[in-house]
Design a protein that fits this description.
Length: 394
């Protein structure tokens, strides 16, 4: 999506660190060790209870089976970064899912899967959603916030003309009129019109604050006054690192639980930005990262796995610890987040074992739940039967 990664972004709750796929809560995240295992195998994998002992419900299993079935073509054709499985491991379950009878979804997971605990199994859950904001394809009165496609001059530096990034890739930027590689325009430059008049506008939004949060989510819907809906998805980013204004607002005492502070939720943050327009504009500009979009066809935002993510069934994960396409069982202190999810997305802030970002779909309810989602508890991966024994034999 939603996560090309910024994509998926999403989670939005108390004291958010707004991030890529997610609005996260730095003050409430579990403490990080100075030595962090970099894969599921290094974190350690242990057998968990039988699937039949999880208490999986029919409705939950039905939605998860539908999402798992959609994932199978990708699951069978991609390398598992976690090192836990191979595409062939998933083939029996995927073949069975294609013809599995209705009404027996729980039995499907009991038949084809076993559970595994990665590391200590202690999970931290946030939420994301597909925002819907007022927007149109052609500019008109009241719709003055441009939604840009990726500019053609946004490119990576040629080898030798800039310092490579930590991942070995050359940085993004542009070549100026003198042929020198320079950073691309940052958010403030673009808001001031650096890209205007170049024909890059694919749509126009009505509210700059709503659009700012849609950029954080990485995808969303634009609803025109006549009810027409256009879905837009992540297409690229200007090369600047993401800065979560939620953490900045908390550091400055603007949001939190104290007297005179705005609530530390997405809704509280938006309220502050609206009631303090000059300060709000300055805060948003501190996030120099800027997301570009494309018009998306289809019935749902596309996750990192390349399939639509589904509300209450799809989750973003760190693929170094969870195979994309795998079912995940969450037993946490928020009832609505407990249950079976399918790993179909990733997020720039979703890192580490047992770190999940739950997707809630679109609409007011999804926005409300995702905006306040903070949950902790246990997590189990559902892996093809025999996986844990094979890993132990390594």
């Amino acid at each position: 999506m939603v996560r090309a990664r910024l994509q998926g972004l999403a989670a939005l709750a108390s004291l958010l660190l707004l991030g890529s796929c997610a609005l996260l809560v730095p003050s409430t995240q579990p403490p990080q060790s100075t030595t962090i295992p970099t894969s599921a195998l290094l974190a350690g994998v242990a057998a968990g209870p039988a699937v039949g002992k999880l208490g999986l419900g029919d409705e939950d299993a039905r939605g998860a089976l539908a999402s798992f079935r959609e994932s199978c073509p990708r699951l069978l054709g991609r390398q598992d970064e976690s090192g836990l499985t191979t595409p062939l491991d998933w083939k029996p379950a995927c073949d069975a899912s294609a013809k599995w009878p209705d009404g027996q979804s729980v039995r499907f997971f009991e038949t084809w899967f076993e559970t595994a605990r990665v590391g200590d199994g202690q999970s931290f859950i946030t939420g994301y959603y597909e925002p819907e904001i007022a927007g149109v394809r052609q500019r008109r009165a009241g719709f003055d916030v441009p939604v840009y496609a990726v500019p053609p001059d946004l490119i990576r530096a040629k080898p030798g003309e800039a310092t490579p990034q930590a991942d070995g890739q050359m940085p993004k930027g542009r070549y100026d009129s003198a042929g020198r590689f320079v950073p691309y325009y940052e958010r403030g430059d673009i808001d001031d019109g650096a890209l205007m008049g170049r024909g890059l506008e694919i749509a126009w939004a009505a509210d700059p604050i709503e659009f700012f949060f849609l950029q954080i989510q990485g995808s969303g819907r634009l609803r025109a006054p006549d009810g027409t809906v256009t879905r837009i998805g992540y297409a690229g980013q200007n090369g600047f690192p993401f800065t979560g204004i939620g953490s900045l607002m908390r550091e400055r005492g603007l949001i939190g639980e104290g007297p005179g502070q705005y609530p530390g939720s997405m809704q509280g943050m938006m309220r502050y930005l609206r009631e303090h327009p000059a300060e709000g504009r300055a805060l948003m500009r501190l996030n120099r990262s800027y997301v570009f979009f494309r018009v998306v066809e289809g019935d749902g935002p596309i996750g990192a796995l390349g399939v639509p993510v589904r509300g209450k069934s799809s989750a973003a994960v760190d693929p170094a610890y969870v195979p994309l396409g795998a079912p995940v069982w969450l037993d946490v202190d928020r009832k609505e987040a407990s249950g079976l999810w399918i790993a179909q997305d990733t997020g720039g802030a979703i890192k580490g074992a047992n770190r999940f970002d739950s997707f809630w779909g679109a609409g007011a309810e999804a926005r409300q739940i995702a905006g306040g989602m903070i949950a902790r508890g246990g997590a189990l991966l559902l892996l093809p039967r025999g996986t844990v024994a094979r890993l132990r034999g390594r």
